[in-house]
Amino acid sequence: MFIMSEDSQRTQGRDAQSSNIMAGKAVAESVRTTLGPRGMDKMLVDSGGDVVITNDGATILNEMDIEHPAAQMIVEVSDTQEEEVGDGTTTAAVLAGNLLGEAEDLIEQDVHATTIVEGYHEAAEIALEAIDEQVNEADVDDEILRQVAESCMTGKGTGGLTAASLAETVVEAIRHVDTDEGVARDNVTVHTQIGASSNATELVPGIVVDEEPAHDGMPSAVEDASIAILDVELDVRTGDVDAEYAIDSIDQLNAAIDAEEGELEGYAEAVADSGADVVFTTEDVHDRVANALANEDVLVFEGLGDSDARQVASATGARRVGDLDDLEDEDLGSADRIRTENFGDDDLAFVEGGAAAETVTVFVRGGTEHVVDELERAIGDALDVVATALESGEVVPGAGATEIAIADKVREEAAGIEGRKQLAVTAFADAVDIVPRTLAANTGRDPIDALVDLRAAHDSEGRAGLITDGDEVTIDDPFEYGVVDPADVKREAVESATEAATMIARIDDVIAAE
To answer: Region Disordered: which residues (predicted)?
Structure first.
């Protein structure tokens, strides 16, 4: 009797566990060398020849086009880490892979998968307690936020800029959107533009949109701008039905032309009379209307996409209007200044200040597409972690110090756990060691020697990490060197990695349809 299709493939027992664990470990290994300030980059080339160069874990895993379902779970760990806290994606993926490796060894020793899962979850709770114990007691001020941003970006592609100089911009941007209700992270955007050194990167108090004036005679800048946003085509109306009109005389032709001129003039007059001196419209603007508005010193941008129109409306307080007859004073938004600038083949509109002051844009410059793309990823991660640190008010030491503390506490607590579950808890501690070991390997130090020295320093000092300062690598207190991470980054990495590893370890039957 056939229960499944004859084309189905089924893998059971140890073979299924081994296959899934191997896939998860392979994915984690692919990003392990990118970890830390001395991590290496990956070059990813897709089928179309497009190239991505990065050491961002989430980007690498998403670009790899992974098909194995167990491996996809590791990708999801990285995605979740990126979405929730913005950094630690490589740490989470590497930790999940190493938890799987330790689980594989336990399974070969006939430790049941359920026991491993129980042990891992108990160890994860201990790990979270260890993270709480490592939280810095000092208030999270701007200096600590700069350290968080710099720690996040160190080792990532930042072009000609140092992580320290970018950190200033990142903290300023997040402070700008810090409200009584929390950090409005969505009000900080990153806009990239190729064509200059990364040193030209700046913070714009407002938004930047890819638009140019509808007419060359329009002003390039408007101060104290009143802004209208229209979903109106400022052009001659055409019917929906195909029709032909017979003109028998010059008088009829002149009448038709006059009617058209009158319609276009009516549009220009209605806009000018509204009090708006800057207009954004999602539809087209006839050349004669644009010329008439240029003569009135009205700046017009036509053909906006819906997302850009929403962004301008949110930033300026203007309300979108679908009929010129409905345009009233209360529909107008405001900004301190709207200016246009040309960057090679691109024209950009900068909407600054006024109602737009609630929104800020990090305007990223770079000489090549690869540089600005990596800068955008680095700054995006830094914005996320600074927002996370500011909202939670908790930071922990980086440079592997928190992982050393986790492993030490988990091993200490494991001694009081009875049965085979103790083996799983101890294995969890061994898995966490992968982070400082990898950091050491990526700096050129022997991983085993570094791990021994870190444990000794942690036991004597209570806090020890691998500090990279230029060409020197020392073991010291990361707080003394400003190497800090948001506590939530570590918590999320532990929780998501544990969930993925235990889910994969419990699978003992894989049924695949052809």
So the answer is: 1-20
